[in-house]
Design goal:
Radius of gyration: 25 Å
Strand order of the largest sheet: 7-8-3-6-9
Distance between the termini: 37 Å
Largest sheet: 5 strands, mixed
Length: 310
């Protein structure tokens, strides 16, 4: 359990990173390195988060000052203090929310191009082929013999096992926030912050939380309020405990096939590879019947600087 005295170190300095460090140690997912046993944090570690923001929490002073002007948030904070006996430090808590907001976005989705073999298979009798050079100049031919030679050169590797044209290629690699609906981010954020509140303050009186709530109704409203401050929800977002429960239900319905990889300047991140036939139409990530086509052993995925995005 976090105590108020822990907000100040032995030299009397205020520790605005305390909640974030506690979250990383007790809530955030990590995998131990096989080499030396160090922790490889999933997505983003708080130290890297601070470096990303120029090594200064002062980058967030303006945002923290906005909290002071939020009268409804102040009422929620006071109710948490009087009813739950939680002395919540809002500067620390808001820093945690900023961190988790960035953390949940550090899940990358690799959308694979339609395989050349499938494209060729859909073509009928080719009547003409157009060539485009690097300057944009085009030339079209309907020469039957030339077309047959070109198609034979393309189909040859496709028809041979392990042919170079059989590899999957990356169409785009984006963060979750660029690929998925905002409700996915909302549900992940709400889940992580709720876990923090429950585990960091286990002695709080949550006798009225209800059957589906892992935290009290007033804590649920706090999380929804913070979502509006972070752009995860619109201003004036309805502070409904029903809405919060739906976010929790949505989180547990999410079905991401995940692999892990180290990405430069990011760290150890979860990645979901999606084959073309799955992502060409909109995917319902909350469907219990969701079943993406798996990346199988032997599949090769090629990236290029033109398709990668960070």
């Amino acid at each position: 359990m976090i105590g108020y005295s822990e907000f100040v170190d032995n030299d009397g300095n205020y520790q605005i990173s305390l909640y974030c460090e506690w979250f990383a140690a007790n809530v955030q997912n990590y995998i131990e390195s096989l080499k030396d046993g160090t922790k490889l944090y999933e997505g983003l570690y708080f130290g890297d988060f601070i470096v990303r923001h120029n090594n200064s929490v002062n980058d967030f002073i303006d945002e923290i000052n906005q909290l002071i002007e939020d009268k409804e948030l102040a009422e929620i904070e006071e109710e948490i203090k009087t009813k739950l006996a939680i002395r919540l430090d809002m500067a620390n808590f808001f820093m945690l929310c900023i961190f988790v907001n960035e953390l949940v976005r550090e899940h990358y989705f690799v959308l694979l191009k339609r395989p050349t073999k499938d494209i060729i298979a859909d073509l009928g009798d080719i009547k003409e082929i157009t060539f485009t050079d690097k300057d944009g100049k085009k030339a079209t031919t309907n020469c039957t013999d030339l077309i047959k030679s070109i198609m034979a050169a393309i189909k040859g590797p496709l028809d041979s096992e392990g042919g170079i044209m059989e590899v999957e290629k990356c169409d785009r690699c984006d963060k979750m926030s660029d690929v998925l609906d905002n409700s996915v981010l909302q549900s992940r954020f709400a889940y992580y912050i709720a876990r923090f509140l429950k585990e960091a303050f286990p002695d709080a009186d949550r006798s009225h939380r209800g059957k589906k709530g892992i935290i009290s109704p007033i804590e649920q409203k706090l999380i929804l309020r913070m979502m509006s401050h972070l752009g995860l929800a619109p201003k004036g977002y309805t502070l409904s405990t029903h809405r919060f429960r739906k976010l929790m239900e949505s989180y547990h319905k999410l079905n991401f096939p995940i692999q892990y990889a180290q990405m430069p300047e990011i760290g150890y991140v979860p990645i979901t590879y999606i084959k073309y036939e799955d992502w060409k139409d909109k995917i319902d990530w909350f469907s219990p019947d969701l079943e993406l086509k798996p990346i199988e052993k032997g599949d090769c995925i090629y990236f290029s600087s033109k398709t990668e995005k960070s």
